[in-house]
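Problem: given the chain below (201 residues), write out its structure.
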Amino acid sequence: MPVIESSAAVLILWAVIGYGLGSVPFGLVVTRAFGLGNLRQIGSGNIGTTNVLRTGSKAAAALTLLLDGGKGAAAVLLARSLAGEDAAQAAGLMAFLGHCFPVWLGFKGGKGVATFLGLLLALAWPAGIACCLTWLAAAAASRISSMGALVSALSAPVWAFVLGYQAVIALSVLLAAIVFIRHSANIARLRAGTEPRIGQK
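Solution.
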């Protein structure tokens, strides 16, 4: 954990700002802008990149990935520049929770992987890059998006430790735990051998 230097009021303010940024449902916005229909009625109904890919539009999926990752990074970078490292972690955590539990969608959001990677890139870019490469390797090897997400999340605190970002380890463990909870249905399907592969509708 970083040294707490900001006041409670400042941390709460950045937590609220982070949540607001994170709760923007870019998957829904992008699919509607591309004329691809209501994402809630496509595939799993999830608002994340993997489900956007099920619309058949790789461009929409790529844009969703960038925007969902970008909102996590933006929350961290804004808070860091205007308040400090403790506020950056508070904003990043709440951006992640905002994506997973957006008030605008009845607290039924995405699984947080892109936002998690985006905020980690902003907090500790070497660890973030390592996690992104881990995701790519695991997803490419398995052809299963959720496998890439789970392996990457599990690797986050390890990379933070190995690369010397001790202040990020606790947050990485917390976020990885939430990623696993959000993927509980995927884990069940992985165990049963019925988890869809990348690009499969």
